[in-house]
Amino acid sequence: MKKWIMYFAGIMMAFCLAACTPTQVTxxxxxxxGGNPDGITxxxxxxxxxxxERLPDQDAPVYEMAFIYFINSGKxxxxxxxxxxxxxxEEALVNxxxxxxxxxxxxxxxxxxxxxxxxxxxxxEAAGDGxxxxxxxxxxxxxxxxxxxxxxxxxxxxTFIENYELDKLKILVNGDLYTSANITMGEEDYLEYTNNYxx
Length: 199
Hints:
Blueprint: H1 2-20, H2 42-53, E1 64-71, E2 78-85, H3 90-99, E3 109-115, E4 133-138, H4 146-164, E5 168-173, E6 176-177
Parallel strand pairs: 4-5
Antiparallel strand pairs: 1-2, 3-4, 5-6
Helix pairs in contact: 3-4
């Protein structure tokens, strides 16, 4: 009887040890034309990894597109360029105009105000009544002859009117209405967007 109990205990121990022994898993690489139940190919894995790498960086800065006008190379009209700005502000636009030679180094926007109708959002109409009028007060404005002076004024006007969706713009220099040897702007004088700016 003891032999049978010992024999039975030995068999049970062997089963327990077999159940506790880790099973070795081997990975097989699908062969061309072989069975791949999931249908995943090395090319699909590479494309998936490439797509993950192309995902946009959530911490990357978001830029706003702006349009900058400046005197063209022939000095007979304006050219227009698209730039990306971290924020669309009057200071950023003035800095772009300085880089393009429209305004002099050190020029600042002392103030910029908008009156009248509010800018419309997507799928909405503009709120408020009347024209949307901007007033830009610069710390200085370049002295130039008649044609060049008008081109400089048009470059500033087109830049601010297009980017801020204005109807017209008034330019001040150090709080006073724009005045030069050739042009004197009155209280009711405004600059409007020049459509044929290339000539």
